Amino acid sequence: MKKTFKITGIILVVIIAIMIIVPFAFQGKIKDLVKSEGNKMINGSFDFAALNISLFKNFPKASISLNDFWLKGNDAFENDTLIQAKELTGVIDLFSLFGDEFDISKVEIKDTQLKAIILPDGKVNWDILKATEEEEKDDETEEVSSFSIQLQKINLKNIDVIFDDQAGSQWLNIANFNATASGNLSDDFTTIRFNGGIEELSYKMGNLMVLNKANIEAQMNVDADFENNKFTLKENKIRLNAIEADLDGWVALLENGDMDMDIKLNTKQFLLRSLAIYTNDFQKLKTDGNATLTAFAKGKLTETQVPQFEAEINVNDAQFQYPSLPAGVDQINVHALIKNPGGNADLTVIDIQPFSFRMAGSPFHLTATVKTPISDPAFSAKANGTINLGVIEQVYPLNDMNLNGIINADLALIGKMSSIEKEQYENIQASGSIKLSDMKLMLPDLPEVNINQSTLSFTPQQLKLSETTAQIGKSDITLDSQLANYLSYIFKGDKITGTVNLRSNLLNLNDFISPDEESVEEGADSVALAAFEVPKNINFTMTANLKEVLLNQMKFDNVQGNLRINNQKIDLNNLSLNSMGGSIAMNAYYSTEVNPKTPKAGGSFNLSQLNFAQ
Question: Which of 277, 377, 461, 524 is the 20 to 30 A CA-CA neighbour of 576?
Fold first, then answer.
């Protein structure tokens, strides 16, 4: 018996010794293998601090870990890190190292940052894979990768992702993504079980923050039929903040690259607090009201057709209010619908009927519809309501700002994009006005602003600002303006044309200089000027007539002149003023038409009878 235990002990010691020694024996081969296989597949640069092998974690298979791994792109992205990972682990059949294919069954990724970038010209930083044999059939010298991935499990822990789409003005940030996915991906049929969550998800489109630190969880079971490329969703739960949704149906990948589908999304009735667009501050509000979200898509998605689909959101009689403030926003009602009967994407209809609310007793109402969005968008929108600026502080904390006044809006717009492109404004209905009355604005370190009355009126041809006088501290400013081609400017980015007339009896520029800026100006001998680009799509002419202007200790009388902005050039023409007992006349220009980084500037001055002693 003792001999048996002794032999058993010796065998265990030998096995353990082998499990310790073997990894060191293979470490050099595997390290060279990782780098050679990586260089075959990747058109970029990568490296890692250490490679570790263990037979204990997933015996009888080996765990191979790369520590402090990084991957960079090429060309314009050679200095941008695409992947920075603390640890990448793959579980491999050690004996497959002696064959022609290497079997990887499990992957674990920890503490990793991913950054995907799309430049304004459309170039992406993740396009780093070298062409495959199918893509270069005639290249007989091409090396073929020998990896065979028979994945059964993926673990993701503490993954951060940034997606920066500079071409589409989109930005996505995922913080602390954790997930586990399991299933035998080498079988013709398997059930993939996914369980994951994102601690914070933020999404920005243009200047609109659509999602701000939203919390997401998902539990999904997918029957994967790899032989027929069909994936069936079952027993799936998705949660966005407090919105819980069920996702059911199936998706099939067809041989020609098309997709066929029948999927449905249904949410339980949720409170306004759960809306996806809220920020963390929203949780502090008192809220009430219910909302629902439903969506489905059924049919084929090809290069020329879309499936039948519909998405609808309803918000009914909702309200919110800051606990420390006396009033809130109530009677919030939203019915938004986007749908397509299937087939031509141009049959899509987007409908908002309505979006309405009441703020501290003042109602606002908006309706909008868009049809034929692909060929020639046809749009109609109406907005009307009253906003009492004086009650905003009862609804939303303004801190040190004091605001009063009434805004009345009554706007309507009906037309087609083709009418704007062809400047057929007679086919567009654009009417209405925004009226401002008895406005008072008080901000820290700035003089009080008072505007008795101002009207911005709309026609298809132009926007017109009526003569408006603003009293800013002791200064007065009177201006009126007209803007033409504003519809083409908004919808197409075409050049907008306008005129501005500015008049003042007294303009004290010292009221707009903070004490810090003033001390810098007094103590500095020179001011560094930074180059700025003049916009391409602006054609403005401004005429100024200012009787008295104060700047620091200087006084300027009878300031008159014209300012023209066009073709990325600013022209200051016939500027004249009286100061220091004499007169000054000048003409100047600033242009970024040739190169915005190296602008051209010049000017001429005529000084007469100046007394510098003054």
Answer: 524
